[in-house]
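Chain X:
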Amino acid sequence: MFAEQQREYLDKGYTKIESFFSAEEVAKILEDVKQIELGAIGVASDNETYQFEKKNGETTKLLRRVENPHLYFDAIDSLVRSEKIVDLLRHFLGENIRLHNSKINFKPPSGAPVQWHQDWAFYPHTNDDFLTLGIFLDETSEKNGAMACLPGSHKGKVYDHRNVETGEFCHAISRSNWDEALDPTEGELLTGPVGTVTLHHVRTLHGSGPNHSTIRRRFLLIGYAAADAWPLLGCGNYGDYESLMVSGRSTVFPRMVELPLTIPYPLSMYGDRIFESQRALTQKYY
């Protein structure tokens, strides 16, 4: 089972499984998502949980991202730890797996793009057995801003994600830092129906264009790592860190692998808010 997807993931750095979740299962997820959307109505501006689209420098009421919804909504917390997802992950990460983060990107009509980047630049670990699983909550196409991945890029270099003008970490790659190996025109769009699941490696180059359609693109993203991948930036509260185990056993003996990496410092004034940080980039692709 999933042998074809395993081969594609190892070769390209990403794969997808169309209609992995049924319409009924997606409807259950959307019950929590609707509560999230209702909760955003009374929020005045960006905060640690809710982020909104900007227009002409002003905050709109259009929700574009919710950070770590599994911390606040029981159904999503159950989903990210569910046997259906964990069983799939074991084919890619082995038996011992830790949850890293979650987010929902809403990308409404005219919603902003996400510039080309590698997640590995945000949170390097002692090894790169680390991926992000995505769930399409709406039909996803090129028109409404599907994610694109660059085949084989997970085997290559790690790019500098700093703004070349300021030196600040900006969660994106300035065009002047590109080389012949980074050609976004060769990226593969990951499109599909509601319920499709994607998996992309932590070093895979990826990005997504703006939403040019009238259809929003809600995309639930969940990061997972092998339990022996230790975060080089530290883990914060160790008890909380241990509570993120979703399969197998934890360890205090991390597996060390010689890998290219970069450290996400110095942070820009926008901190970990990727959209605002990328907006400050002057050498954009999208």
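Chain Y:
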Amino acid sequence: MNRITARRKITRITVGAQPLAGEDLLAVEEPLEIRVNGRRLAVTMRTPGNDVDLAAGFLVSEGVITQGDDFNSARYCAGAIDGVNTYNVLDVTLGAGVAPPAPSLERSLITNSSCGLCGKESIDAVRTKSVFEIADDAVHVTAELLTTFPDKLRAGQNVFEKTGGIHAAGLFDAATGELLVLREDVGRHNAVDKVIGWAVKENRLPLTGTVLMVSSRASFELTQKALMAGIPVLAAVSAPSSLAAEFAVEVGMTLVGFLRGNSMVVYAGGDRIIDAQVDEQAA
């Protein structure tokens, strides 16, 4: 069964024309309960698929794990409706010696697909301290190479191509421009967590020398997730929030917005972006 997209009967209406009955594909949105060692940590609304990546990335974002060895395994638990497993409950086993999440981390509310910070109990809990110092990352990327990332990301958005209603996050090598991994989800924060979770399973944290490209705006939440994974450069096709820009400056992250066509706006860390054509003219 395809649980990523769902067909729904619709009526297409055009002013001045007869309504037309038909079908449309929608991106699926379902809850996923993430447990750690049998204890519920959070419930997030997501698009099914790459759920283990999502759980692993979420644990990095929350500061529970910081490397591949911290994540031992994950298994689906029984969560049945009418006797059929929904595959909407995932229990994670942490690596040996890894402390379980503090009780204060347990989300008291369901995290919806537009807000991964929903359910935090205090303002202080919104900010999570990272073990990685991205300000020391000596990565550089050319402006010309950066401008190729949106098209590469768009070309890999298979679910978006079918539904038009889903976000994407892609991780690129800043030196070569290679797309290392791409994930889609109805929640932009989930798409980023799925990318980070892939890196956990590949034991690639911290993600030095990489660029995180998102198909949405750059929120504070996404900049914080990038920091927690050790990603030095965050680029978005849309605008950043004021807090995202302030946070990027604070932690030494390069933040790029409105990356479209052959232009972009740099909000923080512009010294990492090299304009090869300008350098050649200066030489």
